[in-house]
Amino acid sequence: MLSGDTFKNIRVYWLAFVVYWGVFLFGYDAGIAGGVVFQPYFEGSFGLINADGTVNKSKDTMISSNVVSVLQAGAFFGALASAPLSDWIGRRRTLFGFNIIFFIGAILTTIAGGSRGIGYIYSGRVISGIGIGGMSAVAPAYVSECSPKDVRGRITGGFQLMVTIGVMTSYFINLAVSLYMPNSPLVWRIPFGLQLVPAGIMCLGLPTVKESPRWLASKGYIAEGIANLAYLRMEPCDSTEVLLEFAEIEAAVWEEMESRKGLGLKEAFFGKGNFVRFAIAFMISMLQQWSGQSSVGYYAPQIFTSIGYSGTTNSLLASGIYGIVKVVSTGFFVFFLVETLGRRMSLFISAIGMGITFFTIGALLKTHPVNVPQYDLSAPPPPASKAMAAMLYIYVCFYSLGWGPLPWVYVAEIFPTQTRHYGLAMGSGSQWLWNFAMAKVTPTLEAHLGYKLFLMFATINIVGMGVFSLLLPETKGHSLEEMDIIFGAVSADSRESFIGRALDHRNPKSNSKRR
Asked: Any signal peptide, and if so, which residues (predicted)?
């Protein structure tokens, strides 16, 4: 699982642990809202129940999609804003700023209720979304820039593991409040209020980690860049290993600066070897959202109800098991397979497996239609429903073996230092844009398409995502600086020449006036 170099990289693992609490919030917020709006007391408190005691379906669908999707709307803008900010003030300070923004939003959602109506939840979710969007864009770039190439996939892949742990936690928090305090405003105040705990841990942890050596190199802080790299590698500053790695970083920075000399932002996006990387970042993030996982993740209780798990407790418990399976399978992939199978083959196997399981669910739902009982009445799920639930659990295993963690890993590693923040902003922005679309339309699609919803996702998985996976260049085992060679931005000979120049000029203007 973990090599003998694990202890040597312990500071990188610690950095990832601290930074990824922001990613935990990504998963937690993604899963918590769908369960909160599914609670009968929430529906009654916010006017979603008719006079005869039945749920007002049209209003319930609208409120559910709004509460879930406004987070993604805020996250989209947060992701876009992260690029110039992280370029200007660095990765660590940017994360701290977005964490504070998230705090404000979480407080607003927690105090909603009574005279403070649904508007507090909407506004709080938007503000929280801005914070989450910014953190989700900066975190993988920061971690990737600090990780050695032999474990970069594992450490960066921890991003998705923390997302899944956040989602799973949200499912069980919703289940707990539904069992022990179902008739109280605590059904939304506890789930929303608990967001402040991981945000606080991250806030306290950020001062203990170092700024990205690659960002420091791009800004000319050579002495501090070498010192931070040596700290992360647990080597002395004059270590040959550290000096060679930093020379490669400097060479990539110098090359990009020379190639962009006198050119503007347009050339940074459309320059040699760059446009294809931005296109990949947009497409891989879009396809991840259209895999069907976002729909199941955000509306797991509703999805399990649609396949026959009636009653709040049954559907929330099935959702919790789904979360456990997702965490275990993601952890298995990140720790055992990500550096073995490679990026491209993992994505391909994942897409085909997801497509097959969704086709199976669609066929079962077509041949064994489900009659959902009246408002919050429980009934044992029939055998066909249990089979569909099993297929959903197998589906999430395939998702976790590729299309869950790898889009974040891949986008974080393919861009050069000078444009990595823009690449991550593009990928994260695309992810949140389509995330918003899926969160908004899923209740309507689930209500009107029925079994065809699963067939639609199955087709996208196999035809779209499977083919796309095979077209991607393999990046496993390559340093971040080698990506320019893989994508044709520079030649291998040119890179070697620049590395030689960097080693020859080991005594540059080492300004250490870092804030």
From this structure: none
